[in-house]
Specification:
This is DUF1145 domain-containing protein. The protein is mainly α. The chain has one domain. The chain is built from four helices and no strands. Helix 1 crosses helix 2, helix 1 packs antiparallel against helix 4 and helix 2 crosses helix 3.
């Protein structure tokens, strides 16, 4: 499971880098438009996942800004790590 989370985070980081590069130096043709749309969807989804983390885990875990940033950047792969922490912590 740890390898899957690490691999997912690596792929997510690669996607962020491609979408960011596309903002600075747009690719040719429709690829640029597709990457811009994917960037918008990614920003919305990762923002929602950050809100989910805040509302579900704020009472069980002491969350810092880096925790929120981690979830915003890596999305569900970070949520899986925090899920494990919540399940292992005493209530």
């Amino acid at each position: 499971m740890n390898f899957m989370i690490f691999a997912g985070k690596a792929i997510t980081l690669l996607a962020w880098l491609m979408m960011g590069y596309n903002l600075i130096m747009p690719f040719e043709g429709d690829l640029s438009l597709v990457l811009n749309i994917l960037l918008l969807i990614t920003l919305l989804m990762h923002g929602l996942q950050t809100l989910v983390l805040h509302h579900l885990c704020k009472t069980r875990l002491s969350l810092t800004r880096s925790d929120y940033l981690n979830v915003f950047v890596f999305g569900v792969f970070s949520l899986l790590s925090y899920r494990r922490e919540v399940l292992m912590s005493p209530k």
